[in-house]
Amino acid sequence: MQIAWVLLPMLAALVCCGVYLALARRWQILDLPNERSAHTQPTPHGGGVGLFLGLVVGMAAVSLLGQPWPWLIWQLLLAAAVLVIVGAIDDNRGLPVGVRFSLYTLVSLTVTGLLLWPARSWLLLPAAIYLLWMMNLFNFMDGIDGIAVSETIFVCLAVAALVTWRGGDASYALLCLLIAGAALGFLYWNWSPARLFLGDAGSISLGFLLAALSLQGQVSGVMPLVCWLILMAVFIADASGTLLRRALKGETVTQAHSSHLYQRLARRWQSHSRVVWLMLVYNIIWLLPLTMVALAWNQWQWVALIAAYLPLLLAQLKAGKIP
What we know:
13 helices; 2 strands; two-stranded antiparallel sheet; mainly alpha; single chain
């Protein structure tokens, strides 16, 4: 595995995000604190633009150095670029919910069509819903400093390592490495206390890229979807469990809130970084070994999946007791 490829998008994202931060401060592209915010100072947002530019630089460099990318990868990158642009407009000027949802749905249907048509056309709708949910899920989970990019780094590095371990598709593993590298460059600006936020430009596009790669991995056989679901269990369980808990309590699930488990823990501990480290420890010592089990022994995949989510679901049952 070419770890060196992490450095190029990391440095590119580091520089691009620094430039964006200076411009955002000058142009007053700020996320202002409110009663639901985890920050207390106006902070520039939309930094996902810099992260994405770092990824593009890395992919272009790899291509120029003789590593060809499959056409499907460029199509996924183009779809992600559309989401970054839509997110950047929303971060800067605001877009009606209907417009955003329509564009996200169009991208999801287009990408699932590319991945599944015609052999698996019956899966188009559930796959498109999965893409939409993962986009929104990452947006929901990007509520404290460093958490969304730290999750992205872990998942992408883990997938790249596991694909290489199995002798799988080198371009698939390399793309995961490049995404992790760009996320590392952004993390410098986003670690607590954050100087720059992802915004919709970053959270929506990252959620899309991970979900699209998980579908591609399943279709191509390079990385089963169940392995991705295990690696992303913390995010999926928190976002989905919180939505279900609020629905059962009769709350308006479309209304903005700050009742995710990770947000409650950050308030209780008065620390963003402590929550992120807890997530990473759980990911590394529990979810990664379970993913290796699921990858090595197909007959144990469902057992590994249940084992990944069970502690998180138990934590969700106790989440309501945390202020």
